[in-house]
């Protein structure tokens, strides 16, 4: 018997969003751990709300805002306008953010207004640190063996926005730059002045860019430190030294794996001064030879570090295919750093979920 093609909606209905999300959904453990991390940030969120009240702006729960921002990374939502649209009708998104079916979704402008507030209070950085502490409490970090790497992040600026700093080409059409020699000393982007023309190889074009740097623990490839910087030829090693200083221990020797780009006498010396053994890939073609010799390469741990360090590319690959850091849609180094940190926090949470599925004792 054929059923009737009719649509009858009850006058009243009682439903819970919790019932629509399967118990086996991969977002469930992520939301559980995320809520634990956000609960630890209650004092910081209270300070943010007080600042909002003094400024005369209506208060929106920072926890909901940060869940929405994390959701945008996890589901590759390309814009905040599309994110708001998804939250308005997607029950899974509403459940994750913490909105009921009757709640009105905030306007898109809320994200841009509150992004600076989150930077001011280092909220995203604290969330990232909470994911690292969570991994440490579950015994997922070695705390002694690390890898470091940097990646190119294309800025939200085009070649047409790159103009002379002295303003001598202000009256020239933006597209009329072909054949002109340009450098960071004489030119800057008008859209994102903090970005710099940079390329990682001679085969690639120089584009307005920033650099992203991560330090991962070798046990499971979890990110333990992250930072964005201006793009130049020294930033990768300089930022790596700062990140290593945060994990270095005077009474415990740790190791760090890295590629040939870090094989310089300055970086190797700085590592050894911090009681860090540099397991850096040898660059025998550089002038003066490699800064790493047989005293380091003869040990079995060197080969292990060289094998493990390649896993650091996974977080960059995830961040550029799933996450938004291939070309960021924000301008300014602080906002790029915030987005990179949020992306690595999301990556850590997905890694924790995968490890918990494989090893229930880590759940």
From TrEMBL:
InterPro entries, per the entry: Transpos_IS5 (IPR047959), Transposase_11 (IPR002559), Transposase_InsH_N (IPR008490)
UniProt organism field: Thiomonas delicata
Family of this protein: Belongs to the transposase 11 family.
PANTHER family: TRANSPOSASE INSH FOR INSERTION SEQUENCE ELEMENT IS5A-RELATED
Transposase InsH N-terminal domain residues: 16-117
GO biological process, one term: DNA transposition
Keyword 4Fe-4S included in the entry's annotation: no
Ranges of compositional bias, category Basic and acidic residues: 164-185
Keywords: DNA recombination, DNA-binding, Transposition
Top-rank lineage group of the source organism: Bacteria
Ranges where the record places region Disordered: 163-203
Function in brief: Involved in the transposition of the insertion sequence IS5.
UniProt KW DNA-binding keyword: yes
Listed GO MF terms: DNA binding; transposase activity
Ranges of residues in domain Transposase IS4-like: 213-349
Name of protein: Transposase
């Amino acid at each position: 018997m054929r059923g009737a093609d009719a649509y009858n909606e009850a006058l009243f209905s009682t439903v819970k969003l919790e019932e629509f999300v399967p118990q086996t959904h991969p977002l469930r453990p992520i939301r559980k751990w995320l809520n634990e991390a956000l609960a630890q940030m209650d004092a910081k969120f209270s300070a943010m709300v007080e600042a909002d009240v003094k400024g005369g702006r209506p208060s929106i729960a920072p926890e909901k805002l940060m869940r929405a921002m994390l959701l945008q990374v996890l589901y590759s939502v390309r814009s905040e306008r599309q994110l708001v649209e998804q939250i308005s009708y997607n029950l899974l998104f509403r459940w994750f953010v913490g909105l009921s079916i009757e709640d009105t979704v905030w306007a898109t402008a809320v994200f841009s207004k509150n992004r600076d507030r989150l930077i001011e209070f280092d909220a995203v950085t604290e969330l990232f640190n909470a994911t690292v502490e969570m991994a440490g409490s579950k015994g997922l970090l070695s705390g002694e063996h690390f890898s470091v790497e940097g990646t190119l992040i294309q800025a939200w600026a085009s070649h047409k926005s790159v103009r002379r700093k002295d303003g001598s080409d202000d009256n020239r059409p933006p597209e009329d730059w072909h054949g002109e020699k340009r450098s960071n000393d004489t030119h800057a982007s008008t859209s994102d002045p903090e970005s710099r023309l940079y390329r990682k190889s001679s085969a690639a074009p120089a584009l307005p860019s920033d650099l992203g740097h991560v330090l991962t623990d070798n046990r499971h490839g979890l990110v333990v430190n992250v930072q964005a910087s201006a793009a130049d030829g020294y930033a990768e090693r300089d930022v790596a030294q700062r990140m290593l200083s945060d994990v270095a221990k005077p009474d415990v020797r740790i190791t760090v794996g890295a590629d040939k780009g870090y094989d310089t006498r300055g970086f190797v010396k700085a590592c050894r001064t911090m009681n860090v053994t540099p397991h850096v890939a040898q660059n025998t073609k550089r002038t003066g030879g490699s800064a790493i010799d047989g005293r380091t390469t003869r040990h079995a741990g060197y080969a292990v570090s060289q094998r493990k360090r390649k896993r650091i590319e996974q977080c960059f690959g995830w961040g550029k295919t799933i996450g938004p850091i291939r070309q960021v849609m924000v301008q300014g180094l602080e906002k790029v750093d915030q987005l990179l940190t949020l992306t690595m926090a999301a990556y850590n949470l997905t890694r924790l979920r995968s490890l918990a599925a494989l090893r229930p004792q880590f759940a």
